[in-house]
Amino acid sequence: MQNIITIICLIISTSIFAKGKTNEAYLLLNPSKKIIKTLSSYPEISFDHATKTTLEIYGPEGLKKYLDSLDVQVLPLETHKSEKEYANYPTPNEINEKVLLLQQQHPDICQIQQIGTSIQGRPIYAVKISDNPTEDETEPEVKYIANMHGDEIVGRELMVLLIEELLTKYKLNDANVTKLINNTEIFIVPSMNPDGALNRRRGNADWVDLNRDFPDFTTRDNENTPHGREVETKSIMEWQQSRNFSLSANFHGGAEVVNYPWDTSAEEHPLHQFVLEISQEYANQVPGMKNSTEFPGGVVNGYDWYEVNGGMQDWSYYWHNDLQVTIELSNTKWPRYSEVARYWEENKIALIDFLGKAHQGIALRLNENDKFVSIEKDGEHIGFFEVKNNEFHKVLPEGYYQITTLDQARNALKSIKQKVSKGNQITNYISL
Ligand SMILES: [Zn+2]
């Protein structure tokens, strides 16, 4: 036994990092391709927000020592924790109280579900906004998730403001919002990482970067199982499995740009042109994105920017047919609280419009035998998709589609042709 312990200790001490948790963060100046390649070979190290001259680096204890040995220029990532203006944000508790109050005021269109609990015991809430919110209706399902990086706070604030805006406008009979809420199941998770938010920290209470914790079809971690992952990641995975989301966005900070898939692969996404268009439509409505000098048109392909393995965006489409983009809302991850109002004004129309895009596509009501749906466009096969809860919905670009349902053994059952037009409104699901 003693020998085994000695061997284990030897193995641990020969690793260049003391622990596996991501708790050091630096800004690397003028990174060369060679250095990035070297750093990429360590799975413990992750990157974020590459610019022409800087790269954020996150890694376990010992990262600084290692970087010093490489002869590169690094700065600690700046925070202003002590200044009052930066400390004015609500606590995770106050955010939850706020959304619970909104539910109380609008129970006819708002229902809160607790989809998980953080490591430190904080509830993770999904706010459902729809007519008949206690029923699971056959309507397109769309979701927003913010604050998976605890220190990227603007998304969480904008989600609460968005919930309030949707509920208020419905009450005032705003035509656009009323139509959206009556025909869509909207889900909003203001904070996926409340422990990180409380401590103004990127990772969760285990110091794990949740946007590197999902299954990835290009790595060895390519099984769609929640087993062995952080509780916050598990919560999202299990919730997603129970629903039929077809469109989603996840919100970050540190840049102002819409990042579209893939993040993990240089290959073109099967809906490349379409996801590019909806990303551009979002960015076009936000001055800070539209006029970006760093990102032409305010959009960027994830992989072209910097490769992300284990991200939520790619997992969402690859395993769940849920087209997701990553929206970076603010150049500063944690700006002065007073700046939130400006970000809200700049993003609110785009945020509501994007939800409506869940209505462009096909929607089917199916029966028990229909296990998969196969879709072709102009003779080209787009994919096989799993059917959940006897309904199927997919966001698609304009065009004519051949849709076939399949049984468990993938034998064709029924087939129809369906047209998708720009911005069409799904109010009825086709029964097949
Ligand atoms: Zn982030």
Task: Spell out the blueprint of helices and strands.
Blueprint: H1 2-14, E1 24-29, H2 33-40, E2 46-48, E3 54-59, H3 63-69, E4 73-76, H4 92-105, E5 110-117, E6 123-129, E7 141-146, H5 154-171, H6 175-183, E8 185-189, H7 194-199, H8 231-241, E9 245-252, E10 257-260, H9 272-284, H10 287-290, E11 299-301, H11 302-305, H12 312-320, E12 323-328, H13 340-356, E13 361-365, E14 372-377, E15 380-386, E16 391-395, E17 399-406, E18 412-420, E19 430-431
Parallel strand pairs: 7-8, 7-9, 9-12, 10-11, 13-19
Antiparallel strand pairs: 1-3, 1-4, 2-3, 5-6, 6-8, 10-12, 13-16, 14-15, 14-17, 17-18
The structure holds zinc ion (ZN).
Alpha-carbon distance between the termini?
A: 64 Å
Largest sheet: 8 strands, mixed
The Cα radius of gyration reads 22 Å
- Total count of domains: 3
Number of strands: 19
Per CATH, the architecture of the largest domain is 3-Layer(aba) Sandwich
The unreliable regions are: 6-14
What is the overall silhouette?
globular
Indicate the mean pLDDT: 92
Regarding quaternary structure, how should these chains be classified? Answer: single chain
The helix/strand class is alpha/beta
Question: Can you describe what's shown?
Answer:
It is a single chain. The protein folds into 3 domains: 2-76, Alpha-Beta Plaits (2-Layer Sandwich), CATH 3.30.70; 85-358, Zn peptidases (Aminopeptidase, 3-Layer(aba) Sandwich); 361-431, Immunoglobulin-like (Sandwich), CATH 2.60.40. Helix content is 31%, strand content 25%. It has 13 helices and 19 strands. Strands 5-6-8-7-9-12-10-11 form an 8-stranded mixed sheet, with helices on both faces. Strands 2-3-1-4 form a 4-stranded antiparallel sheet, covered by helices on one side. A 4-stranded antiparallel sheet has the order 15-14-17-18, with no helix packed on it. The chain is globular. Zinc ion binds at residues 149, 152, 211, 252.
